[in-house]
Design brief:
The chain is of the alpha/beta class. The chain folds into 2 domains: 194 residues, no CATH class; 302 residues, Purple Acid Phosphatase, chain A, domain 2, CATH 3.60.21. 36% of the residues lie in helices and 16% in strands. The protein is built from 16 helices and 19 strands. Strands 1-2-5-3-4-6-18-17-16-7-8-9-10 form a 13-stranded mixed β-sheet. The longest helix has 48 residues. Helix 1 packs across helix 5, helix 3 crosses helix 8 and helix 7 runs antiparallel to helix 8.
């Protein structure tokens, strides 16, 4: 066989045309191949215009790009392999960046206080946290990213004593100097994150190469020059880093809250002493050094949580304390300390004063503890499902207590509507049922009945109903006529994010059990109550929500005594649409309660800038209660376990101690 007869597939044609005229001519790369079935191969076709030949520089660039793509994809027919390579590189980049942020703290000195700032990347530690042995200050709602900064002050007592002797001067200096260091702090952690991203992306690429080498028994550098391989690696690392940076930056920009300072929590001994300053004097008498340390940390806390000065922030006219579900626990003497420390001028109690609704539970010492408070701080009270009608009458006999049941009262400039609970614990039939469907039906029917009995144009600054489902139903029905609701019953406060939401017009305040589950509970729920600040223009400006696990702990000198069991959250409200000419003041006092159907009450048109129209009022058929507020009977079941199945008419006094402590 001649050389021209040898198969040519697999190697290029090294000679010219075959001398054998019968052999088919070699394919011409410039000749167009017919693409239609009927088109003859030998038919003449117009010669295409010659393509411009790329220059040397362009040829080199094209060659590098081709090799880069081949190295990243390994084979063009395997895009999955390229995707895996990219995902591994991106994951490794984020992981190493998280480690870099965590292990590379920022250190500085602010107003003679040495501060160490470290990062963390875990969902439970997001936001900004100021840690100390006495407790912590937490700003949780900075961004949705699971990134946290932990600020640890190292306190030199001698230096801080000198600094804090300046009072407000130290606070202002500390905050000013800290703000000056924020750019350097941001640059520090941004640099650590960028270096971590680059190193992590490179590690991820090497991991994939190693896996290919081991699993496929192939050299990852099998194709192309080292220069091309380095170009491919650089491309992958750069693309992974850019994608990570863009994703992180975009998420931060979209979810960042400029008002993050308006929501914070304080835990530990700081929470207790910040809320009741008189305890600091007791601590000073026991341990002056510990007291000085507390003062220093409190000064730092004040510097970090002080709102920025603004003409839009109204002056506080007075504070309102919300309590609920006392369940005959002797807590009023203890609450007096918080009432005095926070200058509370009005108490709002959303019911469940007793365990089983028997007036025998309300001993003389218990009534006296309420009377001592209401002598100077009036209380608005509504009936809960553990309160009988006789308990409501007994509460109404206490001077300074206003009991509302489908009645409206004007209190210090606020128009408040209260509705007693239609159920009674232990009563026969549906009225005493704990079945969720039955409870939902009874509460919804009572709410709609209460709405039908009032003037639809009346405006309510605060609507009180013991069970959340009832308050939500009324507020949903009345629309812009309701500015806020207050409820209890479920023995735990609603989440901070649920207080004020963009998808509804009213503020939703669900209080926990101030009585820690009740008198007969040895280990119950934490003591919860809230303090709402009302501005001189009647805007709700701020709320402090307390959660105290065991307020009777005696040793105030040790922060670990409290740990994270004592805490309070602070939330600043967005202004609501109310008449700018309104004023609220303690001097306005509390008027006599009147039926909700009265026609001389303030209307939506008078006290709100919202327009009341038929579209804003739901009909009973359109009301869908918030599923989150569906009755939670866990508290009732726990009390039944302790108190037995006695009904209010049968119950005997559970013999509360006259000297019981919280």
């Amino acid at each position: 066989m001649s050389e021209s007869d040898q198969p040519t597939s697999g190697r290029p044609n090294q000679g010219g045309p075959s001398p054998d005229e019968s052999a088919p001519p070699a394919p011409n790369p410039d000749q167009r191949v017919p693409d239609q079935p009927g088109e003859a191969a030998g038919e003449a076709s117009p010669e295409p215009a010659p393509k411009p030949v790329p220059g040397p520089t362009r040829r080199r660039l094209l060659r590098v790009r081709r090799w880069t793509v081949e190295q990243m994809f390994r084979r063009p027919e395997h895009p999955v392999r390229a995707a895996v390579r990219f995902i591994v590189s991106l994951t490794a980049a984020l992981a190493v960046a998280a480690i870099a942020v965590s292990v590379y703290p920022y250190r500085t000195t602010v107003a003679k206080v040495d501060i160490v700032v470290s990062g963390s990347v875990t969902p439970e530690h997001r936001g900004i946290t100021v840690d100390s042995s006495l407790g912590s200050l937490q700003f949780r709602d900075v961004t949705a990213l699971p990134i946290g900064l932990h600020v640890t002050p190292r306190i030199d007592l001698d230096a801080v004593r000198e600094a804090t002797s300046g009072g407000a001067t130290f606070t202002n200096d500390f905050r000013s100097q800290l703000e000056d260091r924020i750019p350097a702090m941001v640059l520090h952690f941004a640099g650590a994150a960028l270096i971590g991203l680059l190193i992590g992306a490179l590690i991820g690429d090497l991991i994939v190469d190693g896996a290919i080498s081991v699993l496929a028994n192939k050299d990852p550098l099998r194709a192309g020059s080292r220069r091309h391989r380095l170009a491919a690696t650089a491309t992958l690392v750069a693309s992974s880093t850019v994608v990570a940076l863009v994703a992180l930056t975009a998420t931060f920009g979209i979810t960042y809250r400029s008002d993050w300072w308006q929501r914070y929590a304080v835990t530990g001994l700081l929470a207790d002493i910040a809320a009741t300053p008189d305890k600091l004097a007791a601590l000073d008498a026991r341990d002056a050094a510990a007291a000085d340390k507390v003062r220093a940390v409190l000064s730092l806390q004040d510097a970090l949580t002080r709102p920025p000065t603004s003409t839009d922030t109204p002056v506080t006219a007075y504070n309102v304390m919300f309590i609920s579900d006392v369940h005959r626990r002797d807590i009023y003497n203890y609450l007096q300390e918080y009432i005095d420390a926070n200058d509370v001028k009005l108490l709002v109690n959303t019911g469940d004063e007793t365990l089983v609704g028997n007036t025998a539970e309300m001993t003389s010492s218990y009534i006296d503890s309420i009377r001592r408070i209401t002598a100077t701080t009036p209380m608005i009270w509504i009936k809960g499902n553990h309160d009988s009608a006789s308990v409501a009458r007994r509460m109404a006999e206490i001077p300074g207590v206003t009991v509302l049941d489908q009645e409206v009262v004007s209190a210090m400039g606020l128009q408040i509507y209260g509705v007693g609970d239609p159920r009674t614990y232990g009563a026969p039939g549906d009225a005493g049922s704990d079945d969720v469907e039955v409870v939902t039906r009874i509460e919804t029917e009572a709410a709609l009945s209460a709405v039908e009995n009032l003037n639809r144009e009346t405006y309510f600054d605060l609507l009180l109903a013991h069970e959340p489902i009832m308050g939500d139903t009324m507020a949903t029905t009345l629309g812009p006529s309701v500015r806020a609701i207050g409820s209890g019953h479920v023995h735990h406060q609603n989440e901070t994010a649920d207080l004020q939401s963009s998808d509804r017009d009213y503020i939703r305040l669900i209080e926990g059990t101030t009585g820690m589950g009740g008198l007969l509970r040895e280990t119950g729920d934490p003591m919860e109550f809230s303090i709402l600040s009302v501005g001189t223009n009647c805007q709700y400006t701020r709320i402090i929500r307390y959660k105290l696990a065991d307020p009777a702990l005696p040793d105030l000198t040790r922060g670990e005594t409290y740990g994270n069991n004592s805490a309070f959250d602070v939330h600043y409200f967005q202004p609501q649409d109310i008449n700018a000419e309104r004023t609220c003041a303690v001097e306005d006092g509390i008027d006599e309660a009147v039926p909700a159907s009265a026609t001389n009450l303030a209307t939506v048109q008078e006290w709100s800038s919202l327009q009341l129209n038929d579209d804003a009022l739901a009909t009973p058929d359109e009301v869908t209660p918030d599923p989150v507020s569906t009755a939670d009977e866990a508290g009732d079941n726990a009390i039944r376990d302790d108190a037995g199945d006695s009904t209010p008419s049968e119950a005997t006094n559970p013999s509360p101690s006259e000297t019981a402590t919280p």
